[in-house]
From TrEMBL:
The keyword Transferase applies. PROSITE patterns: DHAK, DHAL. One of its GO terms (molecular function) is ATP binding. One of its GO terms (cellular component) is cytosol. This is Dihydroxyacetone kinase. Coiled coil: none annotated.
């Protein structure tokens, strides 16, 4: 089972205490029964109350404040709050103009909110409810509860919250909320089930699978599909939405993270969605990209569209002050596809192409590209164990960028110069320096190896013993020099350098890294060969003619 720092019930109580302490200007916690109220309860407006199971943060407490909710009622993780909690929150929030409940469509929530509504009515409080049921895939199950409520809840909270702040009456707010629900649809997909505090994840996915149509309680989706690029997944998700609710301009697009999705991935999905909607002739006039309704630490996202009209858009744009309303684009969002910059051949590449490459050098680099490709995963794994894991992907990128032609060493150097990380630029420098000593005599080779290692030491600041590629570079240069001094052949010098690099690379496993990301893991990297040094040995080994 996935480990957590605290248990589920502690997480809810202590999390809410911390949240309310940090945001004391906005919210206050009532502990028994548990609910979160605006720090300064509003007067003379309809009170908006929402709630549901915990584990969906920032929903709901994150949206308590001016222009959204008056109170939020958190249950246990993935479990509805009690009717007592809901009633207490409603009575505390009521300012004499009635209470609008915003309820996600789950049986427990529906029942407890309905019971609380009855009890409040008995006490003379006017109550209306908006039931949110935007999740398209859950409708396909034809089950009695109907569609689940997800991200449209936040849209209702924002739009009705703004209207309530302007003093609109309860009946109008209920109508407005219903309009948002009618015009919203959502769909989710995940690449990993979230963990639960108390249970095993509800599903396991293979590396090549995506769970499509997931909800927000870690439950299985409607379809298990083969992994596809994010762009295609986003298109599929938009198809699902459009099949259920024909899209009409302008729309609001919400890209929601399910808890363990990086902001970069969400932005990427948003970019694809904007481009795809643009292709379909749909204007996206408002967008929000954020974790809004999560499912603990589920790795995935959901997309929501709301068909806007002038009034909905106006309420959307109204001022709001809550703990978690951030980063929203309130202005129009251009729906143009971002154009990736095209990579043009630079001077060095052009110069390299003009030079005649030696056949031996070309064969050497060809062998290297093949062998390094075969071993990229293994090297990436070494970096994962002793550093941060980007070495393999970076190496693959470099190999993929290699274009034969001209001086092969220079061409490979250009390929490495095009990738990030630490190893890329250092290898580029090393190769470019080395290019000058290939095809000469053993002395020139040894000299080139020595100069190349010096350049890397100068630029990277690593010395022998720091557990880096330098550990293989320096002994290789020394071994080649010994062959040159003994009047050996170029082939012998190449072989000696390769063998020395190989031994030295192997010995890096006994060292502790003092440079690069590997230095952050310190002792934990002991026993692991340095991937950079290993790659140098592989490279020099490819110079040995078979
Ligand atoms: P990062 O350390 O930034 O994650 P990479 O994963 O691209 O960089 O490359 C890691 C390799 O780079 C290491 O195995 C090591 O051989 C080499 N390296 C890291 N820092 C240095 C340095 N300062 N000088 C020489 N080589 C280095
Ligand atoms: Mg790395």
């Amino acid at each position: 089972m996935t480990r957590h720092l605290v248990s589920g019930s502690e997480a809810v109580n202590d999390g809410l205490r911390g949240f309310c302490a940090v945001n004391a200007d906005l919210v206050a916690l009532h502990e028994d029964p548990r609910f979160v109220l605006r720090a300064e309860p509003a007067t003379d407006k309809v009170a908006l109350v929402s709630g549901g199971g915990s584990g969906h943060e920032p929903l709901h407490a994150g949206f308590v404040g001016v222009g959204m909710l008056d109170a939020a009622v958190p249950g246990e993780v993935f479990s509805s709050p009690s009717a007592d909690q809901v009633r207490a929150a409603m009575l505390a929030a009521d300012a004499g103009r009635g209470v609008l409940q915003i309820v996600k469509n789950y049986t427990g929530d529906v029942i407890n909110f309905a019971l609380a509504a009855d009890e409040c009515r008995d006490r003379g409080v006017e109550v209306a409810s908006v039931l949110v049921d935007d999740d398209v895939p859950s409708a396909e199950r034809g089950s009695t509860p109907g569609r689940r409520g997800t991200v449209a809840t936040v849209l209702v909270e924002k739009i009705c919250g703004a209207a309530a702040e302007e003093g609109r009456p309860l009946a109008e707010l209920a109508e407005l909320g219903q309009r948002v629900v009618d015009r919203s649809r959502s769909v989710g997909a995940a690449v990993a089930a979230g963990s639960n505090f108390t249970a095993e994840p509800a599903f396991e996915l293979g590396a090549d699978e995506i769970e499509f149509g997931v909800g927000i309680h870690g439950e299985r989706g409607t379809d298990r599909i083969r992994t596809e690029p994010l762009e295609a997944l986003v298109r599929r998700m938009l198809d699902t939405l459009a099949d259920d609710l024909p899209l009409e301009s302008p729309v609001l697009l919400a890209v929601n993270g399910l808890g363990a999705t990086t902001p970069l991935e969400l932005d990427a999905a948003a970019g694809y969605a904007l481009a795809e909607l643009d292709r379909r002739g749909i204007e996206v006039s408002r967008a929000i990209v954020d974790d809004l309704v999560t499912s603990l630490d589920m790795r995935g996202l959901s997309l929501t569209v709301l068909l806007l009209d002038d009034e909905l858009q106006r309420w959307w744009d109204a001022p709001v002050q809550t703990a978690h309303w951030r980063g929203t684009r309130l202005a129009g969002v251009p729906a143009a596809q971002p154009k990736p910059a095209t990579i043009t051949a630079d001077e060095t590449t052009a110069a390299a192409a003009e030079e005649e490459g030696s056949e031996a050098a070309t064969d050497w680099i060809d062998r290297f590209v093949e062998r390094a490709g075969e071993r990229a995963d293994e090297l990436g794994e070494l970096d994962r164990q002793s550093g941060d894991g980007d070495f393999g992907p970076n190496l693959r990128t470099a190999l993929g960028r290699y274009r034969a032609g001209g001086d092969a060493f220079v061409a490979l150097s250009r390929a490495f110069a095009g990738v990030g990380g630490t190893s890329g630029p250092l290898l580029a420098l090393w190769l470019r320096t080395l290019a000058r000593g290939i095809g000469g005599d053993p002395g020139a080779y040894a000299e080139a190896l020595r100069t190349a290692a010096d350049r890397v030491r100068e630029l990277g600041g690593a010395e022998v013993g720091d557990k880096t590629m330098v550990d293989a570079m320096v002994p290789a240069a020394e071994a080649a020099q010994r062959v040159a001094d003994a009047d050996g052949s170029l082939d012998e010098a190449i072989r000696a350098a390769a063998e020395a690099a190989d031994r030295a690379a192997e010995q890096t496993s006994e060292l502790v890294a003092r440079r690069g990301r590997g230095s952050y893991v310190g002792e934990a990297g002991r026993g692991v060969v340095d991937p950079g040094a290993r790659l140098i040995a592989i490279f020099l080994g490819c110079g040995v003619r078979p």
